[in-house]
Specification:
Elements: H1 2-27, E1 60-64, H2 96-109, E2 110-112, H3 123-131, E3 137-141, H4 144-147, H5 158-175, E4 180-183, H6 189-196, H7 200-206, H8 212-215, H9 223-248, E5 253-255, H10 259-262, H11 280-295
Parallel strand pairs: 1-2, 1-3, 3-4, 4-5
Amino acid sequence: MAQSTRRRGRRARAVLAAVAALAFGVAGCDAGGGEKPGAAVSTSPSPRPTPLWDTRPDSVAAVGDSITRGFDACAVLTDCPEVSWATGDSEQVGSLAVRLLGRAGAAGRSWNYAATGARMEDLPGQMARAVRRKPELVAVMVGANDACRESVAAMTPVEEFRADFEAAMRTLREALPKTQVYVASVPDLKRLWSQGRTSALGKQIWKLGICPSMLGDADATDTAATERRAAVQQRVEDYNEVLGEVCAKDRRCRTDGGEVYEYRFGTAQLSRWDWFHPSVEGQAELAEIAYRAVTAPGP
């Protein structure tokens, strides 16, 4: 009886061992817990993450001031949006929208909400209008009029400038969290003064009220005039620092890296009516700077 019991025990243990071996084989694992030799291994590539920045956005909205409206590029004291660096259709300019979307695409999928005379305080309202179009890219150029006031004391304080830019970015992000933003730096106004003051006609136009904080008494070189222009210059640099800092906090925002500020506009790139705003050639240079920034490889 005891011998029969021992035989039954040995048979039970053998059956359990066979079942365990079969289970291991089905699982495809070896004794060490790895893949069983000969087991199939998936070779499907891992999906690539979607980049944060699309170098070919499908629509463009522009916000900003007179530069983006092409002011004084075609006729005296007149907007000329067809030559705008951002959204114009002029073949001479090759705007950012045309370069990205093609001429037909730009005609139907680009919009210009900039306004001559606009300051940073106007940007949140312009942005609110732009977001209704749901653009994939918003191009921003604003700040020159914040420095171009009737006096140094009237220039927009830096912290107000920052608060208004942050408000504009919030307006965009609350509606369109994935829309990209390109921010152009404020031009070097002192450079524009130094070039434009060579034109007698330009200086007469300046007296109509174009950027008096920098261009007033254009030929004066006394201490007061020099200090006034230096104060305007410093404020422009402060504005550009704010633009860079606020943009850097947004993962889908790019600046021009200061290229517009550093660009050495000559008389050929300035309006032949006011020797201050960009000419058609100057607008083309702004478009080229923007296009390089928007299409540069990135994360």
